[in-house]
Amino acid sequence: MDFSDGILQLNSFFTVTIGIIVLFVGRRLNQVVGFLKEFSIPEPVSGGIVFSIMFTLIYAIASVEVTFDLMARDILLVYFFTTIGINASLGDLKKGGKPLAILLVVTIGYMILQNLTGIGVATLFNQEPVVGLLGGSVSLIGGHGTAIAWAPKIQEQFGLTSAMEIGIASATFGLILASLMGGPIAKYLINKHQLKPSVDLDASNTQGKETETPVKMTSFDFLDALLAIHICVILGFILNEVVSNFGLDLPLFVTCLFAGIVVTNLTPKSYPRLTGTAWPTRTAAVDLIADMALGTFLAMSLMSMQLWTLVDLAGPIFAILGMQFIVAILVNLFVVFPAMGKNYDAAVICSGFGGISLGSTPTAMANMSAVSMRYGYSAQAFIIVPLVCAFFIDIANALIIPYFIGLMQ
Prior knowledge:
Elements: E1 2-4, E2 7-10, H1 12-32, H2 34-38, H3 43-62, E3 65-68, H4 71-86, H5 90-95, H6 97-124, H7 129-134, H8 143-158, H9 163-193, H10 219-245, H11 252-266, H12 284-303, H13 314-339, H14 344-358, H15 361-375, H16 379-408
Parallel strand pairs: 2-3
Antiparallel strand pairs: 1-2
Protein backbone atom coordinates (compact mmCIF):
# COMPACT_ATOMS: atom_id res chain seq x y z
CA MET A 1 0.00 0.00 0.00
CA ASP A 2 1.33 3.42 -0.97
CA PHE A 3 -0.22 6.87 -0.50
CA SER A 4 1.14 10.01 -2.09
CA ASP A 5 -0.21 13.08 -3.91
CA GLY A 6 -3.81 12.09 -3.22
CA ILE A 7 -3.42 8.61 -4.77
CA LEU A 8 -3.84 5.49 -2.66
CA GLN A 9 -2.18 2.61 -4.55
CA LEU A 10 -3.18 -0.84 -3.31
CA ASN A 11 -0.90 -3.77 -4.13
CA SER A 12 -2.02 -7.17 -5.38
CA PHE A 13 -2.56 -8.57 -1.89
CA PHE A 14 -4.96 -5.80 -0.88
CA THR A 15 -6.62 -5.88 -4.30
CA VAL A 16 -7.40 -9.60 -4.11
CA THR A 17 -8.57 -9.25 -0.50
CA ILE A 18 -11.00 -6.47 -1.39
CA GLY A 19 -12.13 -8.49 -4.42
CA ILE A 20 -13.09 -11.37 -2.13
CA ILE A 21 -14.95 -8.96 0.17
CA VAL A 22 -16.80 -7.60 -2.88
CA LEU A 23 -17.94 -11.13 -3.71
CA PHE A 24 -19.35 -11.66 -0.22
CA VAL A 25 -21.06 -8.26 -0.28
CA GLY A 26 -22.55 -9.10 -3.68
CA ARG A 27 -23.80 -12.43 -2.39
CA ARG A 28 -25.42 -10.79 0.60
CA LEU A 29 -27.02 -8.11 -1.57
CA ASN A 30 -28.47 -10.76 -3.88
CA GLN A 31 -29.96 -12.50 -0.86
CA VAL A 32 -31.71 -9.43 0.54
CA VAL A 33 -32.51 -7.38 -2.59
CA GLY A 34 -35.29 -9.15 -4.45
CA PHE A 35 -34.82 -7.81 -7.98
CA LEU A 36 -31.12 -8.75 -8.05
CA LYS A 37 -32.01 -12.40 -7.52
CA GLU A 38 -35.14 -12.19 -9.67
CA PHE A 39 -33.18 -11.01 -12.70
CA SER A 40 -30.16 -13.27 -12.12
CA ILE A 41 -27.68 -10.42 -11.67
CA PRO A 42 -24.22 -11.98 -11.04
CA GLU A 43 -23.01 -11.55 -7.46
CA PRO A 44 -19.67 -9.91 -8.40
CA VAL A 45 -21.62 -7.33 -10.42
CA SER A 46 -23.89 -6.47 -7.47
CA GLY A 47 -20.95 -6.00 -5.12
CA GLY A 48 -18.57 -4.52 -7.66
CA ILE A 49 -20.85 -1.65 -8.68
CA VAL A 50 -21.47 -0.76 -5.02
CA PHE A 51 -17.72 -0.60 -4.32
CA SER A 52 -16.94 1.39 -7.47
CA ILE A 53 -19.57 3.96 -6.40
CA MET A 54 -18.06 4.01 -2.90
CA PHE A 55 -14.55 4.69 -4.27
CA THR A 56 -16.02 7.42 -6.49
CA LEU A 57 -17.58 9.10 -3.43
CA ILE A 58 -14.22 8.90 -1.63
CA TYR A 59 -12.63 10.68 -4.59
CA ALA A 60 -15.38 13.31 -4.73
CA ILE A 61 -15.42 14.04 -0.98
CA ALA A 62 -11.79 13.52 0.09
CA SER A 63 -10.00 13.93 -3.29
CA VAL A 64 -8.35 10.55 -2.74
CA GLU A 65 -8.00 8.35 -5.82
CA VAL A 66 -7.95 4.63 -4.97
CA THR A 67 -6.07 2.57 -7.56
CA PHE A 68 -5.40 -1.16 -7.71
CA ASP A 69 -2.65 -3.48 -8.89
CA LEU A 70 -4.66 -5.75 -11.21
CA MET A 71 -1.95 -8.25 -12.16
CA ALA A 72 -3.64 -10.95 -10.07
CA ARG A 73 -6.94 -10.23 -11.85
CA ASP A 74 -5.38 -10.99 -15.23
CA ILE A 75 -3.98 -14.26 -13.88
CA LEU A 76 -7.44 -15.25 -12.67
CA LEU A 77 -8.80 -14.63 -16.18
CA VAL A 78 -6.23 -17.05 -17.60
CA TYR A 79 -7.14 -19.60 -14.91
CA PHE A 80 -10.82 -19.39 -15.72
CA PHE A 81 -10.51 -19.87 -19.46
CA THR A 82 -8.04 -22.69 -19.02
CA THR A 83 -10.66 -24.53 -16.93
CA ILE A 84 -13.16 -24.01 -19.76
CA GLY A 85 -10.71 -25.71 -22.12
CA ILE A 86 -10.06 -28.55 -19.69
CA ASN A 87 -13.80 -29.16 -19.38
CA ALA A 88 -14.41 -29.03 -23.14
CA SER A 89 -15.14 -32.27 -24.95
CA LEU A 90 -14.84 -32.45 -28.73
CA GLY A 91 -17.57 -35.06 -28.59
CA ASP A 92 -19.90 -32.40 -27.19
CA LEU A 93 -18.60 -29.94 -29.77
CA LYS A 94 -19.55 -32.34 -32.56
CA LYS A 95 -23.06 -32.61 -31.17
CA GLY A 96 -23.32 -28.82 -31.15
CA GLY A 97 -21.43 -28.26 -34.38
CA LYS A 98 -24.28 -26.68 -36.33
CA PRO A 99 -25.37 -24.33 -33.49
CA LEU A 100 -21.73 -23.32 -33.10
CA ALA A 101 -21.47 -22.41 -36.79
CA ILE A 102 -24.79 -20.55 -36.68
CA LEU A 103 -23.85 -18.56 -33.58
CA LEU A 104 -20.50 -17.67 -35.13
CA VAL A 105 -22.14 -16.32 -38.31
CA VAL A 106 -24.71 -14.36 -36.28
CA THR A 107 -21.98 -12.91 -34.04
CA ILE A 108 -19.79 -11.76 -36.93
CA GLY A 109 -22.81 -10.15 -38.58
CA TYR A 110 -23.65 -8.46 -35.29
CA MET A 111 -20.09 -7.10 -34.95
CA ILE A 112 -20.42 -5.38 -38.33
CA LEU A 113 -23.86 -4.03 -37.33
CA GLN A 114 -22.41 -2.82 -34.02
CA ASN A 115 -19.77 -0.76 -35.79
CA LEU A 116 -22.30 0.67 -38.26
CA THR A 117 -24.57 1.62 -35.34
CA GLY A 118 -21.77 3.38 -33.48
CA ILE A 119 -20.60 5.25 -36.56
CA GLY A 120 -24.17 6.27 -37.41
CA VAL A 121 -24.92 7.70 -33.96
CA ALA A 122 -21.54 9.47 -33.79
CA THR A 123 -22.24 11.11 -37.16
CA LEU A 124 -25.64 12.33 -35.91
CA PHE A 125 -23.82 14.05 -33.01
CA ASN A 126 -21.30 15.63 -35.42
CA GLN A 127 -18.51 13.47 -34.06
CA GLU A 128 -15.77 11.82 -36.06
CA PRO A 129 -16.87 8.38 -37.34
CA VAL A 130 -13.93 6.81 -35.53
CA VAL A 131 -15.60 7.80 -32.24
CA GLY A 132 -18.43 5.47 -33.24
CA LEU A 133 -15.94 2.74 -34.05
CA LEU A 134 -14.49 3.12 -30.55
CA GLY A 135 -18.05 2.76 -29.29
CA GLY A 136 -18.49 -0.34 -31.43
CA SER A 137 -16.67 -3.65 -31.60
CA VAL A 138 -13.39 -2.06 -30.46
CA SER A 139 -14.62 -1.55 -26.90
CA LEU A 140 -17.90 -3.47 -26.60
CA ILE A 141 -17.37 -6.93 -28.02
CA GLY A 142 -13.63 -6.29 -27.83
CA GLY A 143 -13.66 -5.17 -24.20
CA HIS A 144 -11.09 -3.14 -22.28
CA GLY A 145 -8.14 -5.08 -23.67
CA THR A 146 -9.00 -4.44 -27.31
CA ALA A 147 -9.89 -0.80 -26.59
CA ILE A 148 -6.57 -0.21 -24.84
CA ALA A 149 -4.71 -1.98 -27.64
CA TRP A 150 -6.30 -0.01 -30.50
CA ALA A 151 -6.66 3.45 -28.90
CA PRO A 152 -3.02 4.56 -29.46
CA LYS A 153 -3.19 3.55 -33.13
CA ILE A 154 -6.49 5.39 -33.63
CA GLN A 155 -5.12 8.43 -31.80
CA GLU A 156 -2.06 8.45 -34.04
CA GLN A 157 -3.93 7.95 -37.32
CA PHE A 158 -6.89 10.26 -36.65
CA GLY A 159 -5.49 12.75 -34.14
CA LEU A 160 -8.19 11.84 -31.62
CA THR A 161 -6.46 12.67 -28.35
CA SER A 162 -9.31 11.27 -26.21
CA ALA A 163 -9.34 7.90 -27.98
CA MET A 164 -8.18 6.02 -24.89
CA GLU A 165 -10.75 7.66 -22.61
CA ILE A 166 -13.58 7.06 -25.09
CA GLY A 167 -12.60 3.41 -25.51
CA ILE A 168 -12.32 2.76 -21.77
CA ALA A 169 -15.56 4.63 -21.03
CA SER A 170 -17.45 2.63 -23.64
CA ALA A 171 -15.99 -0.65 -22.45
CA THR A 172 -16.76 0.19 -18.81
CA PHE A 173 -20.39 1.18 -19.26
CA GLY A 174 -20.84 -1.59 -21.81
CA LEU A 175 -19.69 -4.06 -19.17
CA ILE A 176 -22.34 -2.79 -16.76
CA LEU A 177 -25.10 -2.94 -19.37
CA ALA A 178 -24.01 -6.42 -20.44
CA SER A 179 -24.05 -7.64 -16.85
CA LEU A 180 -27.58 -6.31 -16.39
CA MET A 181 -28.91 -7.58 -19.73
CA GLY A 182 -28.32 -11.34 -19.75
CA GLY A 183 -30.44 -12.46 -16.81
CA PRO A 184 -33.59 -10.46 -17.67
CA ILE A 185 -33.48 -11.60 -21.31
CA ALA A 186 -33.23 -15.25 -20.29
CA LYS A 187 -35.99 -14.81 -17.70
CA TYR A 188 -38.29 -13.22 -20.29
CA LEU A 189 -37.69 -15.95 -22.88
CA ILE A 190 -37.98 -18.81 -20.39
CA ASN A 191 -41.23 -17.49 -18.93
CA LYS A 192 -42.79 -16.45 -22.24
CA HIS A 193 -42.11 -19.77 -23.97
CA GLN A 194 -42.36 -21.90 -20.78
CA LEU A 195 -38.96 -23.43 -21.44
CA LYS A 196 -37.45 -26.23 -19.40
CA PRO A 197 -33.89 -27.61 -19.37
CA SER A 198 -33.31 -31.01 -20.93
CA VAL A 199 -33.60 -34.07 -18.70
CA ASP A 200 -29.89 -34.86 -18.82
CA LEU A 201 -28.91 -31.92 -16.61
CA ASP A 202 -25.45 -31.72 -15.14
CA ALA A 203 -26.02 -32.76 -11.53
CA SER A 204 -23.77 -30.06 -10.19
CA ASN A 205 -25.74 -27.28 -11.82
CA THR A 206 -29.40 -28.08 -11.21
CA GLN A 207 -31.72 -26.17 -8.94
CA GLY A 208 -31.96 -29.08 -6.59
CA LYS A 209 -28.25 -29.43 -6.06
CA GLU A 210 -28.53 -28.47 -2.43
CA THR A 211 -30.46 -31.70 -1.74
CA GLU A 212 -27.93 -33.95 -3.42
CA THR A 213 -25.08 -35.81 -1.78
CA PRO A 214 -22.08 -33.44 -1.64
CA VAL A 215 -19.12 -34.41 -3.79
CA LYS A 216 -16.16 -35.36 -1.63
CA MET A 217 -13.02 -33.45 -2.59
CA THR A 218 -9.59 -33.76 -1.00
CA SER A 219 -6.65 -31.37 -1.01
CA PHE A 220 -4.93 -33.64 -3.54
CA ASP A 221 -7.94 -33.38 -5.85
CA PHE A 222 -7.60 -29.60 -5.69
CA LEU A 223 -3.84 -29.71 -6.30
CA ASP A 224 -4.32 -32.16 -9.17
CA ALA A 225 -6.70 -29.72 -10.85
CA LEU A 226 -4.30 -26.84 -10.19
CA LEU A 227 -1.40 -28.81 -11.71
CA ALA A 228 -3.45 -29.58 -14.82
CA ILE A 229 -4.33 -25.90 -15.19
CA HIS A 230 -0.68 -24.87 -14.90
CA ILE A 231 0.40 -27.44 -17.48
CA CYS A 232 -2.15 -26.03 -19.93
CA VAL A 233 -1.17 -22.43 -19.12
CA ILE A 234 2.50 -23.22 -19.86
CA LEU A 235 1.50 -24.74 -23.19
CA GLY A 236 -0.73 -21.71 -23.77
CA PHE A 237 2.26 -19.40 -23.24
CA ILE A 238 4.28 -21.36 -25.80
CA LEU A 239 1.39 -21.38 -28.29
CA ASN A 240 0.90 -17.64 -27.81
CA GLU A 241 4.53 -17.01 -28.72
CA VAL A 242 4.22 -19.23 -31.81
CA VAL A 243 1.11 -17.52 -33.20
CA SER A 244 2.59 -14.14 -32.35
CA ASN A 245 5.56 -14.94 -34.60
CA PHE A 246 3.07 -15.47 -37.42
CA GLY A 247 1.61 -11.99 -36.86
CA LEU A 248 -1.53 -13.11 -35.04
CA ASP A 249 -1.80 -11.23 -31.74
CA LEU A 250 -4.20 -13.14 -29.48
CA PRO A 251 -4.82 -12.60 -25.76
CA LEU A 252 -3.06 -15.15 -23.56
CA PHE A 253 -6.34 -16.54 -22.22
CA VAL A 254 -7.37 -17.54 -25.77
CA THR A 255 -4.30 -19.71 -26.36
CA CYS A 256 -4.60 -21.19 -22.86
CA LEU A 257 -8.22 -22.07 -23.60
CA PHE A 258 -7.15 -23.78 -26.80
CA ALA A 259 -4.28 -25.59 -25.01
CA GLY A 260 -6.77 -26.90 -22.45
CA ILE A 261 -9.03 -28.21 -25.21
CA VAL A 262 -6.15 -29.93 -27.03
CA VAL A 263 -4.63 -31.55 -23.94
CA THR A 264 -8.00 -32.73 -22.62
CA ASN A 265 -9.05 -34.31 -25.88
CA LEU A 266 -5.68 -35.88 -26.74
CA THR A 267 -4.95 -37.37 -23.31
CA PRO A 268 -6.24 -40.97 -23.01
CA LYS A 269 -8.36 -41.54 -19.92
CA SER A 270 -6.19 -44.48 -18.92
CA TYR A 271 -2.90 -42.60 -19.37
CA PRO A 272 -0.78 -42.94 -16.19
CA ARG A 273 -0.11 -39.65 -14.41
CA LEU A 274 2.12 -38.58 -11.55
CA THR A 275 -0.97 -37.91 -9.45
CA GLY A 276 -2.27 -41.43 -9.97
CA THR A 277 -5.63 -40.15 -11.22
CA ALA A 278 -7.22 -39.53 -14.61
CA TRP A 279 -6.97 -36.13 -16.30
CA PRO A 280 -9.28 -33.92 -14.17
CA THR A 281 -11.80 -32.86 -16.77
CA ARG A 282 -15.23 -31.88 -15.39
CA THR A 283 -14.28 -32.60 -11.80
CA ALA A 284 -15.56 -30.77 -8.73
CA ALA A 285 -12.07 -29.33 -8.12
CA VAL A 286 -11.84 -27.80 -11.61
CA ASP A 287 -15.34 -26.38 -11.27
CA LEU A 288 -14.45 -24.87 -7.90
CA ILE A 289 -11.35 -23.15 -9.29
CA ALA A 290 -13.37 -21.87 -12.26
CA ASP A 291 -16.03 -20.36 -9.99
CA MET A 292 -13.44 -18.73 -7.73
CA ALA A 293 -11.44 -17.31 -10.64
CA LEU A 294 -14.42 -15.94 -12.57
CA GLY A 295 -16.13 -14.40 -9.55
CA THR A 296 -13.00 -12.72 -8.22
CA PHE A 297 -11.98 -11.49 -11.69
CA LEU A 298 -15.32 -9.79 -12.25
CA ALA A 299 -15.39 -8.36 -8.73
CA MET A 300 -11.92 -6.84 -9.16
CA SER A 301 -12.77 -5.47 -12.62
CA LEU A 302 -15.94 -3.71 -11.50
CA MET A 303 -14.69 -2.42 -8.15
CA SER A 304 -11.69 -0.77 -9.86
CA MET A 305 -13.78 1.30 -12.29
CA GLN A 306 -12.92 5.00 -11.92
CA LEU A 307 -16.36 6.41 -12.65
CA TRP A 308 -15.26 10.02 -12.13
CA THR A 309 -13.06 9.90 -15.25
CA LEU A 310 -16.12 9.29 -17.44
CA VAL A 311 -18.24 12.34 -16.54
CA ASP A 312 -16.92 14.64 -19.27
CA LEU A 313 -17.58 12.02 -21.96
CA ALA A 314 -21.24 11.53 -21.12
CA GLY A 315 -23.05 13.07 -24.13
CA PRO A 316 -22.29 11.26 -27.39
CA ILE A 317 -20.92 8.19 -25.60
CA PHE A 318 -24.16 7.57 -23.71
CA ALA A 319 -26.15 8.09 -26.91
CA ILE A 320 -24.00 5.52 -28.72
CA LEU A 321 -24.24 3.05 -25.84
CA GLY A 322 -27.99 3.57 -25.54
CA MET A 323 -28.52 2.70 -29.19
CA GLN A 324 -26.07 -0.22 -28.94
CA PHE A 325 -28.06 -1.52 -25.96
CA ILE A 326 -31.31 -1.42 -27.93
CA VAL A 327 -29.75 -3.09 -30.96
CA ALA A 328 -28.20 -5.83 -28.80
CA ILE A 329 -31.57 -6.62 -27.19
CA LEU A 330 -33.35 -6.74 -30.57
CA VAL A 331 -30.68 -8.97 -32.12
CA ASN A 332 -30.83 -11.27 -29.10
CA LEU A 333 -34.61 -11.63 -29.13
CA PHE A 334 -35.29 -11.70 -32.87
CA VAL A 335 -32.12 -13.23 -34.32
CA VAL A 336 -30.10 -15.22 -31.77
CA PHE A 337 -33.03 -16.93 -30.02
CA PRO A 338 -34.78 -18.12 -33.21
CA ALA A 339 -31.48 -19.07 -34.88
CA MET A 340 -30.45 -21.20 -31.90
CA GLY A 341 -33.69 -23.20 -31.86
CA LYS A 342 -36.13 -21.33 -29.56
CA ASN A 343 -35.51 -23.84 -26.74
CA TYR A 344 -34.03 -23.67 -23.24
CA ASP A 345 -30.46 -23.91 -24.53
CA ALA A 346 -31.20 -20.97 -26.83
CA ALA A 347 -32.43 -18.90 -23.87
CA VAL A 348 -29.22 -19.57 -21.90
CA ILE A 349 -27.15 -18.79 -25.01
CA CYS A 350 -29.02 -15.48 -25.26
CA SER A 351 -27.99 -14.60 -21.71
CA GLY A 352 -24.39 -15.29 -22.72
CA PHE A 353 -24.73 -13.34 -25.96
CA GLY A 354 -26.13 -10.47 -23.92
CA GLY A 355 -22.90 -10.53 -21.93
CA ILE A 356 -20.52 -10.61 -24.85
CA SER A 357 -22.44 -8.20 -27.10
CA LEU A 358 -21.68 -5.20 -24.88
CA GLY A 359 -19.23 -6.53 -22.31
CA SER A 360 -16.74 -9.34 -22.18
CA THR A 361 -16.53 -13.11 -22.34
CA PRO A 362 -16.28 -13.44 -18.52
CA THR A 363 -19.50 -11.39 -18.29
CA ALA A 364 -21.16 -13.76 -20.72
CA MET A 365 -20.08 -16.74 -18.63
CA ALA A 366 -21.23 -15.06 -15.41
CA ASN A 367 -24.63 -14.32 -16.98
CA MET A 368 -25.05 -17.94 -18.06
CA SER A 369 -23.87 -19.23 -14.68
CA ALA A 370 -26.43 -17.06 -12.88
CA VAL A 371 -29.24 -18.24 -15.17
CA SER A 372 -28.16 -21.88 -14.86
CA MET A 373 -28.11 -21.67 -11.08
CA ARG A 374 -31.70 -20.45 -11.12
CA TYR A 375 -33.29 -22.49 -13.92
CA GLY A 376 -30.96 -25.39 -14.79
CA TYR A 377 -27.78 -26.23 -16.68
CA SER A 378 -27.24 -26.03 -20.45
CA ALA A 379 -24.27 -28.07 -21.65
CA GLN A 380 -24.60 -26.74 -25.19
CA ALA A 381 -24.45 -23.11 -24.07
CA PHE A 382 -21.31 -23.64 -21.97
CA ILE A 383 -19.58 -25.35 -24.88
CA ILE A 384 -20.31 -23.10 -27.85
CA VAL A 385 -20.50 -19.65 -26.24
CA PRO A 386 -16.93 -19.70 -24.82
CA LEU A 387 -15.55 -20.97 -28.13
CA VAL A 388 -17.34 -18.35 -30.19
CA CYS A 389 -16.73 -15.51 -27.75
CA ALA A 390 -13.23 -16.25 -26.52
CA PHE A 391 -11.61 -17.55 -29.68
CA PHE A 392 -13.39 -16.70 -32.92
CA ILE A 393 -14.42 -13.18 -31.88
CA ASP A 394 -10.84 -12.03 -31.34
CA ILE A 395 -9.82 -13.34 -34.74
CA ALA A 396 -12.81 -11.75 -36.46
CA ASN A 397 -12.33 -8.43 -34.64
CA ALA A 398 -8.67 -8.37 -35.66
CA LEU A 399 -9.89 -8.31 -39.27
CA ILE A 400 -13.02 -6.17 -38.92
CA ILE A 401 -11.44 -3.25 -37.03
CA PRO A 402 -8.64 -2.59 -39.59
CA TYR A 403 -11.24 -2.85 -42.37
CA PHE A 404 -13.39 -0.07 -40.86
CA ILE A 405 -10.31 2.04 -40.09
CA GLY A 406 -9.28 1.70 -43.73
CA LEU A 407 -12.70 2.91 -44.88
CA MET A 408 -12.40 6.05 -42.73
CA GLN A 409 -8.96 7.12 -43.93
